[in-house]
Amino acid sequence: MKYILFDLDGTITESGTGIINSVKYALEKMNIPPLEKSTLKKFIGPPLIQSMMKYAGMNEKEAQEGLRLYRVYFEEKGIFENVVYPGVEELLKELSKKNMKTAIATSKPEKYAKMITEHFGLDRYLCGVYGATMNEKMVEKSEIIKYAMESIGIQESEYNEVIMVGDRMHDIHGAKQNNIKSIGVLYGYGDIQELNRAGADYIAVHPEDILDIINKITIV
Question: Which of 29, 77, 86, 215 has its CA 20 to 30 A from that of 206?
């Protein structure tokens, strides 16, 4: 493998507290009844407007307002209610030593993703941070993975040297739609059933397993 693309939330950082608190703030301001914790967790990873409509019963206009209110809290507090998973920095360091190019491909707005990776000092290991647009025009994982690969300069002839690492089905589907392999991780917010149904090529239980999988992959 030459290029490793990582999801951010649930793969690089445990960001649930900040995301959930931001959603709760938005719902409260809109006088929407509180959601169960299990439902709130479903907001972590997928595009937020889609989640506002699906899980909070909003129409598109209401979801836009929900996103605006979400960002009020997130930009002030939620963005750093967040920690790097144990073992992730060591993983990125090892991949860098092997001269592999690592990058972030996330449905989180690129502006926030860059702030987070810089805050935790992870940007030193990355060749780029690629995310959604603030206006939500580009939020689908397949689009973001394509954008990341084009920005890095990956040629179609190199697709067999690219792998996407993520914790949710959106990461796996996005990889398949771009004809690259995927690693589903179990320490984030997805589970084995979701990742297997999505068709993950490999499963990692812990961050260190990702390195083992990459080391074992042989390019034919």
Answer: 77
